[in-house]
Design brief:
Keywords: Membrane, Transmembrane, Transmembrane helix. With about 140 residues, the protein is mostly helical. It is built from 6 helices and no strands.
């Protein structure tokens, strides 16, 4: 099962390959797709810590990523009353946690990607629209 979670890592790669030449929002779309799958990928990589050899390093990377990306969804689900705190999690509860993680991290990485797109467009002089709240520069 962990291998299937790790295969989710191809989703952002495929998204980037699809939109790299056709869209001026390629980094935003890639960020959204990365954020949607980062928590399950990190959970799958954590399971590799029990492997032998070089695969243990992937497990350590997964552990660090899971420490960053995993608990946020759990905290949101317990604060919203969707799951009880301090009890063993079942499959449906893990799905709820990962859906909340996907919403949070997709919006975060999508906004980072949007800012990268703005910077690339401004450096290329593509006449990209001014972000909300910013004043257009004269000249």
């Amino acid at each position: 099962m962990e291998q299937l979670l790790i295969l989710l890592g191809w989703v952002p790669v495929a998204c980037y390959q699809i939109v790299k030449k056709e869209s001026d929002k390629k980094w935003m779309l890639t960020g959204i797709s990365l954020g949607a799958v980062i928590a399950p990928i990190s959970f799958g990589l954590v399971k590799m810590i029990y492997a032998t050899g070089i695969l243990k390093l992937f497990g350590v990377v997964g552990l660090v990523l899971n420490i960053i990306h995993g608990p946020i969804g759990y905290m949101m689900a317990t604060m919203a009353g969707l799951i009880k705190a301090g009890v063993a999690l079942t499959g449906p509860e893990l799905v709820i946690i990962n859906l909340l993680n996907a919403l949070l991290w997709a919006s975060f990485y999508g906004s980072v990607g949007y800012n990268i797109d703005l910077k690339v467009a401004s450096e290329a002089g593509a006449g990209h629209p001014v972000p909300v709240g910013a004043s257009p520069q004269a000249g």
